[in-house]
């Protein structure tokens, strides 16, 4: 038996690529959740209303202080006892999206904190409606400096998807373990997993670098 069997590698390649599509799907949907929910959490945490700011702060700090693995275990295995019956994939998307929403919330908050106080005062003085103020004045200034951090969390989320194999989500890592257990050859499938994550991570890094340059001020 060869140390690395290329023929066996090509045989399992289609199965691995099929599982990789699910990995990318989970990452994309989870990231959308993280971006949207993180923005609302950041705005809630900065709210002048304590009844809104305190719960948002508590949620963010609690989720950031507990492992993703425990959170997805809780969603998939505990919540069904209270009537929330969802599939493993749905639990994984919710878990990873909620987990990273709390990190993106802090990224957004740093962007909001970077807005000069004078601009907030000018918005109030000019009586600019809240929606117009955020969409036309605040958000464009918040997004530009936080793009690199948001890109880093996207890549980190992508690399954390193997955690979901613990709740039976058949993403690329779980598929590699399933294939390896059939004939006790783990080298080839695990190597393909490593190459997949390395390739996609490099592509994402280049993509976010281009986005960063595109949104940067002249």
From TrEMBL:
UniProt keyword Disulfide bond present: no
Location in the cell: Cell inner membrane; Cell membrane
BP term (GO), one: amino acid transport
Top-level taxonomic group: Bacteria
Gene Ontology CC: one annotated term: ATP-binding cassette (ABC) transporter complex
PROSITE patterns for this protein: ABC_TM1
CDD domains the UniProt entry points to: TM_PBP2
Keyword Membrane annotated: yes
Any matching Pfam family: BPD_transp_1
Transmembrane segment boundaries: 24-44, 190-208
UniProt topology in membrane: Multi-pass membrane protein
Similarity comment: family membership: Belongs to the binding-protein-dependent transport system permease family. HisMQ subfamily.
Protein name: Amino acid ABC transporter permease
Source organism per UniProt: Pluralibacter gergoviae (Enterobacter gergoviae)
Top-level taxonomy: Bacteria, Pseudomonadati, Pseudomonadota, Gammaproteobacteria, Enterobacterales
């Amino acid at each position: 038996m060869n140390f690395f069997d290329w023929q066996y590698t090509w045989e399992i390649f289609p199965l691995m690529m099929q599982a990789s599509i699910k990995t990318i799907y989970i990452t994309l949907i989870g990231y959308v959740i993280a971006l949207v929910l993180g923005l609302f959490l950041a705005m809630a945490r900065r709210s002048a209303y304590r009844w809104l700011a305190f719960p948002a702060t508590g949620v963010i700090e609690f989720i950031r202080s507990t492992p993703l693995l425990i959170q997805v275990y809780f969603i998939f295995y505990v919540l069904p006892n209270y009537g929330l019956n969802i599939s493993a994939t749905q639990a994984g998307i919710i878990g990873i999206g909620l987990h990273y929403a709390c990190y993106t919330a802090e990224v957004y908050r740093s962007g909001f904190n970077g807005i000069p106080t004078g601009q907030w005062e000018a918005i109030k003085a000019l009586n600019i409606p809240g929606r117009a103020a955020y969409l036309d004045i605040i958000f464009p200034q918040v997004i530009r400096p936080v793009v690199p951090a948001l890109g880093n969390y996207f890549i980190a989320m992508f690399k954390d998807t193997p955690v979901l194999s613990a709740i039976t989500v058949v993403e690329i890592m779980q598929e590699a373990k399933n294939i390896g257990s059939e004939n006790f050859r783990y080298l080839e499938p695990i190597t393909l997993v490593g190459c997949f994550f390395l390739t996609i991570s490099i592509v994402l890094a280049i993509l976010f670098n281009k986005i960063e340059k595109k949104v940067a001020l002249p």
